[in-house]
Amino acid sequence: MEKIINRQWVLTSRPHGAATKENFELREVPVAEPRDGEVLIKTIYLSVDPYMRGRMNAGHSYAEPAQTGEVMLGRAVGKIVQSNSEGFEKGDVVVCGNGWQTYAIAKAESLRKLDLPPELLPAALGVLGMPGLTAWYGLLEIGKPKSGETVVVSGAAGAVGSVVGQIAKIHGCRTVGIAGTDEKVRWLTEELGFDAGLNYRTSPDLGAGVAAACPDGVDVYFDNVGGEVSASVLRSLNTFGRIAVCGQISTYDLDTPEPTEAILPLLLTRRALARGFIVGDHAEHFAKALGELRGWVEGGRLKHRETIIDGIEHAPEAFLGLFRGDNIGKQLVRVAEV
Ligand code: NAP
Question: Do 203 and 267 belong to one domain?
């Protein structure tokens, strides 16, 4: 077989403060031959995710640190180009862990074959993938919203947040989203059915804005960002409120995040529950959750959007854009045509 060249992004240095393009280097190496039980996969869509920022640090995060000189890990949708496994054939499309590279060899048992039409393949990394499962689990299993209650979500126009708000609507809740541009807020309220939206970057007093948007207080807060945004929401938290601590993106670039003692007296006085979670710990819910998410998508009740950048050479730019708020919905890199 003709030698295939693999283009791969490796981590070359660890950031202090915000990550930059200089932390990565694009290399070209020949692709090896898959062994028995392995397949060679061409990357079609690559997912870039906020958790990858934690991996760039040496210390403990919720994902294992990447080593310098190693290819950046990450989920992808890929097409099998060579199979030495009975379960897979050339041409099969799979969810895989190809990472930031154009090809990877994988063991068959690490793959999930996709039965989606081509136009839904990006969604396999968004609403019908890890971010959708995160929204489903955090909202329904931790937030436990009841019809008529008020749900607030931060990072609302992103991959997870946009799904959270819509599931809350499906469950009959008043839903308020917080995001970083007016365009995002309009998308939430005019297209996704959120009852209200707030732009945290331009709001003169976000706490007052949340209080006005939530006349009955906040029963469930789905936190994707932490920091000042969350402090503003928690002022309106109701007695017996629930906080699903999903992400803290506003702190990921800080070497030493601010202490947050203020949350503990609040939990006490409001008799509230705050629970952090990592979606990968809850695989027992995935089949049910994916079934519901797919049913809502196919029934037109759950909308989704992907922001797609073309070309593996732009993977760092797509990733860094998450921290500037460049994306609406799920951020992906299209590495090859389907
Ligand atoms: P995303 O929301 O699609 O993208 C990140 C968004 O965060 C940006 O678009 C930006 O939107 C916002 N943002 C960036 N910096 C910010 C800041 N300093 N303050 C406030 N907002 C900021 O990403 P995602 O994949 O859906 O992830 C959302 C959160 O969930 C992340 O914190 C992530 O780490 C977490 N997560 C956790 C799990 C889990 O298992 N616990 C799983 C998936 C994701 P704006 O324009 O609105 O600022």
Answer: yes
Distance CA 46, CA 313 (A): 12
Domain ranges, residue 118: 5-126+305-334
Measuring from atom 16 of ligand 1, which residue has the nearest CA? 250
Ligand 1 pocket, mutate which of 160, 320, 323 (most atoms under 8 A from CB): 160
User: In this structure, are 141 and 257 located in the same domain?
Assistant: yes
If we measure between CA atoms, which residue out of 324, 2, 334 comes closest to residue 158? 324
Find out whether the beta carbon of 34 lies less than 6 Å from any atom of ligand 1.
Answer: no
Nearest to 231 by CA among 158, 180, 185, 178: 178
State the distance from the centre of ligand 1 to the C-alpha of 311, rounded, in angstroms. 23
180 lines ligand 1 (CB under 6 A): yes
The number of the ligand 1 atom at minimal distance from the alpha carbon of 327 is 9
Do both 135 and 264 map to the same domain?
Answer: yes
- Rounded to two decimals, what is the model's pTM? 0.97
Q: What is the pLDDT of residues 102-144, one digit of tens each?
A: 999 999 999 999 999 999 999 999 999 999 999 999 999 999 9
274's enclosing H/E stretch is strand 273-276
- Specify the pLDDT at position 1: 56
pLDDT grade, residue 15 (50/70/90)?
very high
Show contacts of 165-169: CB within 8 Å, 24+ apart: 165/192, 165/194, 166/192, 166/193, 166/296, 166/301, 166/302, 166/303, 167/135, 167/136, 167/139, 167/140, 167/296, 167/302, 168/139, 168/143, 168/220, 169/193, 169/194
